[in-house]
Amino acid sequence: MVITKQGESYFRIQNGETVLLIDPTNQRSVRGADIVLNTKINSPTDGEAREDLIIDHPGEYEIRGIRVEGTAVSGEGSTIYRIRWEDLTLGILGPVSKEPEAKSQLGLQGVDVLILPAGGKNLSAAAAAKITRQAEPALVIPWGDLKAFTKEMGADAGNMENKLTFKKKDLSPKAMKIAALAEN
């Protein structure tokens, strides 16, 4: 699996020939994607001609063997996604201003990889650290104020990388490695 950060909450995840985009910034970005997840309602890709590949609401979906479960974040107009892709489980929390209710966060529990906002103009670094500790992912990819998040976690993110490449066997459960991705 290869993960790159394309913008604030815009990520590109590729496994083999299959490409999944999270919160792409415009309709043109969608070209070449197999699945598009919009964590916010009324995102720039709403209304795209390839509607069958765009998931932008809570529910259960299966596209190309990838299982996606979306849960609404109360009062935020946002969706938390849990993605089961081959042998990996990913949790995605998009831009939110406050910590989601506990029942909304259930989709993030026990994921291998967690992508979430951490500080800055979105979720506070302290709330992001709390969610991360509860989810116990092997790998967390925060975006926002990385320095504040790592301080809250009492950890070091290491060097900024342009992309993250890994397989399930590379992840250590409960190790909670923090990956810092630079925008491409």
Write structural notes for this entry.
- The model has no long low-confidence stretch (mean pLDDT 90).
- The two termini are 17 Å apart.
- Helix content is 10%, strand content 34%.
- The protein has one domain: Ribonuclease Z/Hydroxyacylglutathione hydrolase-like (Metallo-beta-lactamase, Chain A), CATH 3.60.15.10.
- It is globular and about 40 Å long.
- It is mainly beta.
- A hairpin with a 2-residue loop joins strand 2 (11-15) and strand 3 (18-22).
- The strands form 2 sheets. It has a 7-stranded mixed sheet. The chain has a 6-stranded mixed sheet with strand order 5-4-3-2-1-12, with no helix packed on it.
- The chain has helices spanning 125-135, 146-153, and strands at 2-5, 11-15, 18-22, 35-37, 54-55, 59-63, 66-73, 78-85, 88-93, 113-118, 139-144, 164-165, 177-178.
Helices and strands, in order, run as EEEEEEEEEEHEHEE
Which structural class is indicated by helix and strand composition? mainly beta
Count, helices: 2
In one word, what is the shape? globular
Strand content: 25-35%
Unreliable runs: none
CATH superfamily: Ribonuclease Z/Hydroxyacylglutathione hydrolase-like
- The CATH class is identified as Alpha Beta
Count of beta strands: 13
Query: And the CATH topology?
Result: Metallo-beta-lactamase, Chain A
In spatial order, strands of the major sheet run: 6-7-8-9-10-11-13
Number of domains: 1
Mean of all residue-level pLDDT scores = 90
